[in-house]
Amino acid sequence: MFENIPQAAPDPILGLTEVYNADPNPEKINLGVGIYQDEQGKTPVLTSVKRAEDLILKQEQSKSYLPIPGSPDYAKAVQTLLFGEDSALRSEGRLFTAHTPGGTGALRVAGEFLKTKTDADTVWLTVPTWPNHGPIFQAAGMKVETFAWFNAETHSFDADAALAAIEQIPEGDVIVLHGCCHNPTGCDPTAEQWRQIAEAVSRRGLMPVMDFAYQGFATGIEEDAVGLRIVAEVCPELIICSSFSKNFGLYRERTGAVTFVTKDADTQGRLASQAKLVVRTNYSNPPSHGGSIVATIFSDQELIAQWHEDLKEMRERLNGMRSLLVSNMASLQSARDFSFVEQQRGMFSMLGLSKEQVAEMGEKHSIHMVGSSRINLAGLSTSNIERFCQALASVL
Ligand code: LMR
């Protein structure tokens, strides 16, 4: 039965780690998978997370199953991050949150829910987008279409093209928007542009799915939720897919959440009953540890303050690397202007290299990045930035 199974292509992002690991060059640089690294190239456990884990170890009484949507304390923490402490959506009973295995799990639950419990069957993704978006929604049985988002010449969000494209999307379809720190471009709309997008989405009768994996990596927790909150103000129904891989550094704990915003509490109750069926037939109920960490941090003001510090340190290092890349390229008198990198936010920017140039960076210089020329800024440090910029200048 297995003998005719064909070889699959390696994953465009996770597959890069294998290429990096196999590279014998001691000076190799890994700019591939979106994992935060500190100046020493380490991905440390955050101080706030370590302290929460100490508490959990002392206090945990049982390893019994969690409820299908996970713990209510975790759901409350997720909703606070999304909509603030005093959210009317919460007090009105319009939110249902389920703890999912990572942001990927959240997207998959959202896709299956939309496909099996609603009339929606087509989802629209930005060009470009995270390479796993399309396969996740396809695996959930949805058709995938794309719409314009990015101007590759100006390296910026193309509001006119995006708005014009949204006006053409058929009513009842689903649109995936990146809450902040667009992956892979690092280009986000302004608050005013978010309002225009939200109004267009609402006018067209589309279902917004907000992929929210980098909250706190652009400017701060509250600031980065501006786009999401505008969409929730304008659109009465939406879905948010959260990931805490990056902002809590919980990558391997697979800590995510899917949050449904409904028109009223009655709809929320019926929707929750159906969403729980989707979870039950997928993974039954979520793993506990990552969610306990987030909920424990949110139960203690000192831990929250520590977590904000941890997050700020990561954010400032990424922004510092952006500035260093730009100044180093300028001092090499590069023919190409890289100042756009400093305007973008989050972990990623796209350098605008051809496939051949990306290959040359990997093969000749041992600098590994995604085929689209997306780089993870966290892979750069004060000790490798010069080597990186010289290699970049040479392939240009
Ligand atoms: C990325 O875009 O690199 C991350 O979201 C990791 C992943 O799973 O692809």
Overview of this protein structure:
The radius of gyration is 21 Å and the shape is globular. It is built from 15 helices and 13 strands. The chain is of the alpha/beta class and 396 residues long. The strands form four sheets. The chain has a seven-stranded mixed β-sheet with strand order 2-10-9-8-7-3-4, with helices on both faces. Strands 1-12 form a two-stranded parallel ribbon. It folds into two domains: 14-45 and 303-395, Aspartate Aminotransferase, domain 1 (Alpha-Beta Complex); 65-299, Type I PLP-dependent aspartate aminotransferase-like (Major domain) (Aspartate Aminotransferase, domain 2), CATH 3.40.640. The model has no long low-confidence stretch (mean pLDDT 97). The structure holds (2S)-2-hydroxybutanedioic acid. Keywords: Aminotransferase, Pyridoxal phosphate, Transferase. Belongs to the class-I pyridoxal-phosphate-dependent aminotransferase family. This is Aspartate/tyrosine/aromatic aminotransferase. Its cofactor is pyridoxal 5'-phosphate. It comes from Oceaniferula marina.
Walk me through the topology.
Blueprint: H1 14-22, E1 29-30, H2 47-59, H3 72-83, H4 88-91, E2 95-101, H5 102-117, E3 122-127, H6 133-139, E4 143-148, E5 150-151, E6 156-157, H7 159-166, E7 174-178, H8 191-203, E8 207-212, H9 226-234, E9 238-243, E10 255-261, H10 265-282, H11 289-297, H12 301-331, H13 340-343, E11 348-350, H14 355-365, E12 367-368, E13 374-376, H15 385-395
Parallel strand pairs: 1-12, 3-4, 3-7, 7-8, 8-9
Antiparallel strand pairs: 2-10, 5-6, 9-10, 11-13
Helix pairs in contact: 2-11, 2-12, 3-11, 5-6, 5-10, 7-8, 8-9, 12-15, 14-15
Bound molecules: (2S)-2-hydroxybutanedioic acid (LMR).
(2S)-2-hydroxybutanedioic acid (LMR) is lined by residues 13, 33-34, 130, 132, 183.
